[in-house]
Amino acid sequence: MTNEERFDEERAGRYDLWIRKTIPGYEALHDMAMFLLRTGTDAKNPRLLVAGSGTGMEISYFAERNAEWTFTGVDPSSEMTAIAGNRLEELGLSKRARLHTGFVHELPATEPFDAATLILVMHFLPDDGEKLALLESISARMKPGSPFILADLHAEKDSPKLDRFIEAWKARQSTTGITAEDLEKMFDDIHENIHFVPEERIVELLEEAGFTETHRFYNAMLFGGWVARKGFRLRVSGFR
Ligand SMILES: C[S@@+](CC[C@H](N)C(=O)[O-])C[C@H]1O[C@@H](n2cnc3c(N)ncnc32)[C@H](O)[C@@H]1O
Q: What are the structural domains of the chain?
C-alpha cells in the first residue's frame, strides 16, 4: 500500500477515531510534545513547522492552547490536508495556519522556524536515505537551538521484541471493534510497509541531520517520542 492509498479519502475520514484506538496515549503524546516545545523556545511569537500535519491534530491542539503560535503544516495527502483545513476553519484557527499539500523540501528556507514536529510519519520511509533526507529538510528550515519533536514506531527488525510487542498490540487492537479481516489487513500492512529501525538508529539519524540533545519522552509499546534541538554546528553535507 502506498502512502497515497493509506491516507486516501475513505481512510482519512476514519483517521481521527482509528488513530486513538491504535496508539495508546495518542493525545498525551501531543500534549507532552506541546509542553516540551513551549518550554523549549524563547521566541515571542513562535512559528512552528508541522511536517506530516495529517488531519490537523498538532496544529489544532497547539493553536487552541497557545494564542501566539502560528503554523505551517505540510502533508502530501490532499485528503488529510482537506480535513485539517475544515477542522481549522471550524475552530476559527485558519488565519494562524498555512497548509501546504506536498513536501517539506518544497518550502523556502528563507524564514527558519522556531520549532518543528514530525509525529508518526518517518516510519513510513525506508532507511535508504529517505528518512535522513526528510529530517535534513526539516533541520535546514529551523533556527539553531530550536526544539524538535519526533514520534515514530521503532524496534530492531526481525527481533523477538518486535514479535512480542506486535502480538500484544494485535491482541489489544482486536478489542476495538475491528473485524478479523481488517485486523489481518492492518498487520499485513504494518509488516510490509513500516520501516522499523531501533532507537539507536533514530538517535543517529537525528545527529546526522544536525540535531543534538535527543531525549525520549514517550513510550507506548512500539511507539516512541523524542525531543531534540537543532544544533549550532555548520553542516557540510548538501542542503535539502
Ligand atoms: C499517521 S499520520 C500522522 C498525522 C499527524 N502527525 C498525527 O499525529 O496525527 C501520517 C501523515 O504523514 C503524511 N506523510 C507521509 N509521508 C510524508 C512525507 N514524506 N512528508 C510529510 N508528510 C508525510 C501522511 O500523508 C499522513 O497524513
A: 3-156+195-230 (3.40.50.150)
CA of 139 to the centre of ligand 1 (A): 17
Residue with cell 524496534: 155
The HSE-up count of residue 222 (CA atoms within 13 Å, CB side) is: 26
Q: Is the CB of 22 under 6 A from ligand 1?
A: no
Q: What does the buried/exposed string (b/e) look like for 218-235 if buried means 16 or more CB atoms within 10 Å of the residue's CB? A: beebbbbbbbbbbbeeee
The band of 233, judged by pLDDT with boundaries at 50, 70 and 90, is confident
Binding site membership of 135 for ligand 1 (Cβ less than 6 Å): no
Q: Which residue CA neighbors atom 27 of ligand 1 most closely?
A: 54
Mean pLDDT rounded to a whole number for the chain: 94
Tell me how far the alpha carbon of residue 231 lies from the centroid of ligand 1, in angstroms: 24
pLDDT for the residue 13 = 75
